[in-house]
Amino acid sequence: MQSILVREALFFRWMPGSSPGMTKGETYMPPWLVPSLLPAYAAALLFGYLCGSIPFGLILTRLAGTADIRAIGSGNIGATNVLRTGRKGLAAATLVGDALKGTLAVLLVYSYYGGEYRYFAHELALPAAAGAFLGHLFPVWLGFKGGKGVATYIGLLLALAWPIAIAFVLIWLAVAALTRYSSLAALLASAATPFALWLMGEQPEAVLFALLTALLWIMHRANIARLVKGTEHKIGASSDG
């Protein structure tokens, strides 16, 4: 499966002993080990981080004149906590903003490096995705206290493997409808994502999203504890936690 958003036909990817311009007998070096590409990887990671660190939940709620979102409910800056302000429009805008900042970080890096590093542009988009996710979780502007990452996770999937993003949303909707637990829906959908990517032949993305999934679960550790205890808040139920 190839994402029509960011992928060219990279025939030489993951073919040991083969790379564009190589002659017989030359040894293939993975792109992330090529010294000349390391600055590009670092720049992609940093750019992704800066994009991901934009706190849309905080910005939008302040512009709307509501109380500091960090003093409401769980104190999280994500869409779920914004919804606790009673402003559904703000919550929806936060969800879209947090998702698209991940999508755009990946697409912009891919577009920027597509000319100079045509065969490696996709690989350079992967550190941008990692950076965007880390930026959302640990924004430097907010003392490294950010969101839990679900919306940004979906946005990254949209850029790198949009059919899997659709599958994520469908799993989320199914689990949420059956259990009314938003956190459980996100946890199960994220757990399925690396396996789905691997089965579709997207090995680099599968590895990346396995790491992102582990981080997402860590950020949801309080939700997991409440799910185990049976005290997790359900969708539609009033809550301040």
Describe the protein's architecture and organization.
The protein has helices spanning 38-52, 56-63, 79-83, 88-113, 121-137, 150-160, 162-179, 182-199, 203-219, 221-229. The protein has 241 residues and is an all-alpha fold. The chain has one domain. The longest helix has 26 residues, at 88-113. It is globular.
* Average pLDDT taken over every residue: 84
For the secondary structure, the number of strands is 0
**How many domains comprise the coordinates?**
1
Assign the structural class, choosing from mainly alpha, mainly beta, alpha/beta, alpha+beta, or little secondary structure. Answer: mainly alpha
Q: Tell me the radius of gyration.
A: 19 Å
pLDDT < 50 runs, ≥5 residues: 1-26
Taken from the alpha-carbon principal axes, the silhouette is: globular
Record the SSE blueprint.
Layout: H1 38-52, H2 56-63, H3 79-83, H4 88-113, H5 121-137, H6 150-160, H7 162-179, H8 182-199, H9 203-219, H10 221-229
Quickly describe the structure.
The chain is an all-alpha fold.
From the structure above, extract its key features:
241 residues; 10 helices; 0% strand
